[in-house]
């Protein structure tokens, strides 16, 4: 049973959102309806505080960068002038001067137009270029993403070395053209949450491409390899206990890299289909929901993009938060192909499990469809819109551990 508690961090936020999705459709004046009302209020309060709609205030931006970089008020004294001035700025009692704004922009990477918005001043559009100091450097260093760092340095050192570290990471991913999507404009190739931190998303994509370059498949990718029958063969590996690892190996044999990389905070990400600069597809999965059913649908969805939409000659990419719905025809096509590859539609349409989804019926149909029972349970839960059904069959906690083998002790700790 879900226990309602305060939302203090991103993990609590994601768990509350997942529970809200389970309760959608609950009737008023029922325990489930009351729980939905309370959780909705908690999530709205958290979002208002951490993801304010519209342009953030100068103080919001300073506090956000302090949190990202692990800075204290004392660290702001060289930029603002004195302990008293720092206190007055953060409490809203003193306006930010031009010299303060320039120092905060230079050393913390806060957009100058945000810092000066109260006075109506603004800098030119050159400030909208990528600023290395705006990446979540502290979290990236904690995860060991900067190979040049043997120990986590003090946060000011991270900021001072931001350009060097980000450039090295981008080069490992393939250079300036790698995952070349704009940070400030939406496009039709991203099913992403409106509150996504674009810098964190860019960093995650570079990390995935860098890992793919480092352990790139030896086989040459042949365009047209990924068809529905091919996806079906990969899906049938789900019946094996180590099916996810076998799928990674099978894809590598055909020149496709599968990289598992936990999402960064404020990316709300399940997976992506990207391209290496030599034309090989890369699938990145976050496993933010560590369940067998979620792994196989996420994998099939990204493979569907490779099959139907990905053009590596154009360095395209698709970024997906699969909890979102919409009317993007490319995403709907990928959803349909993923479902059909996991469970052939002619089997699904006549399956008795659609009428009565008992545990025995799920196991029986899974044998007929030649996939893991979690795949069937996940489809039933999705189609019914009831995520309390068959929760014992979806394989919670059974995927991530398969990809921890060979990770360093630090990386293994960061999965937790």
Over the alpha carbons, how many angstroms does the gyration radius reach? 23 Å
- Give the low-confidence spans: 118-128, 184-188, 408-416
Q: Provide a count of the helices.
A: 19
Identify the quaternary structure here. Answer: single chain
Strand order of the largest sheet: 1-5-3-4-2
**What does the main sheet amount to?**
5 strands, mixed
Distance between the termini: 22 Å
The coarse silhouette is globular
Q: Mean pLDDT, as a whole number?
A: 82
Element pattern in H and E: HHHHHHHHHHEHHHEEEHEHHHHH
Helix fraction, binned, reads 40-55%
Task: Tell me the strand percentage band.
Answer: under 5%
Find the count of extended strands (DSSP E, 2+ residues).
5
How many domains make up the coordinates? 4
Question: Would you tell me the structural class of the helices and strands?
Answer: mainly alpha
